[in-house]
Amino acid sequence: MMATQPGHTTIRMIRPAWLLAALILFLPLASGCATVKPWQREILADPIMQPGRNPIAAAQLDHIYFSREAASGGTTVGGGGCGCN
Amino acid sequence: MSPHNKSIPPALLAALLTMMIPVVCFANFKQGDNLPDLASFHLEGKLPEKLEGQVILLDFWASWCGPCKSSFPAMEELSKKYVDQGLTIVAVSVDKNQENMQRFLKSAKVSFTVVRDAQQKLVAAADIHAMPTSFLIDRSGKIRFIHTGFNGDETTRQYLKEIEQLLGEPKP
Fold it and tell me: Which residue pairs, CB below 8 angstroms and at least 24 apart, start in A9-18?
């Protein structure tokens, strides 16, 4: 697509498809997410990183979530830090 | 482009394909691959002098990983049972903190080789998906079996079966 401005200057416009392609390519780079590899979970596996310090209460809560929503885990690093859950 | 053309624009297709490249490019150890030279990864600790022609159990573990620590007694049993037949266990710690590793090893007292991947280069090359992950390598240096996680007796039984199979194969 071409456009002409007063003074006979011709500028090249970007095609929408290329603009969309560029957005798809570069938008993920703008996110703040980082994947933590299993061998990098040393700090996450520390007991101090657990939101609840009472293991019995935490197990009860997990059981409630599991019964109600069929969901489990997601509160801390699974399986004692192994990342295998 | 015609407004009625429903096909994917080439630019969009190129962008989508480019996004898929990193997924394909990551190196990881797969069944059938040859085990790379462990010495080239600058591991802390002494590797066994003779790895060629041995059946190797390469295990990635950490002192902060509960299931990894649970697997140590089983690996010690396997080592004692099969060391004379040609099994070598190499446990690679990915601990950043050497003291934590040493503290655990002091209590575990194992006879097999333990090294530390301080720079985490070997584990990154292996690109494991969980801790612990172990690789069973045959006498020709090929990765034959991969274990993800440690499930107590179930994993031990699988180890026994696979190690006996590999030890029973003719030497290259």
Answer: A15/B11, A17/B1, A17/B9, A17/B10, A17/B11, A17/B12, A18/B11
Rounded mean pLDDT, B152-172: 93
Give CATH superfamily name and number for B29-168. Glutaredoxin (3.40.30.10)
Residue B93 pLDDT > 90? yes
Q: Helix (H, G, I), strand (E, B), or coil: what is residue B27? A: coil
Mean pLDDT of the region B75-85 = 96
Amino acid at A69: E
Closest chain A residue to B17, measured at CA: A25
Chain A positions in Cβ-Cβ contact with residue B123 (cut-off 8 Å): 39
Report the gap between the CA of A17 and the closest CA in chain B (Å): 6
The beta-carbon neighbor of A84 closest among B10, B18, B130 is B130
ipTM of the complex: 0.76
Three-class secondary structure of residue A32 per DSSP: coil
Q: Which of B11, B67, B96 sits opposite A84 (nearest CB)?
A: B67
Instruction: Name residue, tokens 């970007």.
Output: A14
- Cβ–Cβ pairs < 8 A, chains A and B: 78
Query: How many domains does chain A contain in total?
Result: 1
